[in-house]
Structure prediction request, 187 residues.
Amino acid sequence: MTADSKTHGAPPEDGHEGETRRDFLYLSGAAFGAVGAACAAAPLINSLNPAKDTLALASIEVDISQIPLGEARTVMWRGKPVFVRHRTPEEIEEAKDTDIAVLGDKQPDSDRVKKPEWLIVVGICTHLGCVPVGQKMTEERGDFGGWFCPCHGSHYDTSGRIRKGPAPKNLAVPPYVFVSDTVVRIG
Prediction:
């Protein structure tokens, strides 16, 4: 064996091929390439995040002190109408006394409200996405005193539960929390 073969790529005499400078360069190059690809992909991935104006609508605060007993307001949250109803004692009792067994989407009133006098639901019919009527005292509220979807005849009760018609589910309850006695945060 010549001195030249010992220094230029010949395996060591013990038969084990150890790490070489070339291995180090391959690994270093691959690591730099991966970091470069990640840096190039970061702006693209960040562009898929929601816009700031959309995030601002992720939650809204509603002053409920201006809603008289027995009336309701519609607010927009994430591009959807949300019904905020100040229920009367009669509406609360009617919702509590409903036999769960007769409901298509079985859910007690206590699971749908945090304070019995306030019902907050997404105002989109679960049949085909129409907006039910019944927010104003002068509008048709259906056979059960809640809301009525005139498009296909779905009737909701005073807890927003489907009672009659083709809608398969109750009106959805959005996430909300009472910030104070007069303000509720939806979202």
User: Anything to note?
Assistant: The chain has two domains: 3-46, 54-186. The chain has four helices and nine strands. The domain at 54-186 is CATH 2.102.10.10 (Rieske Iron-sulfur Protein). The radius of gyration is 32 Å.
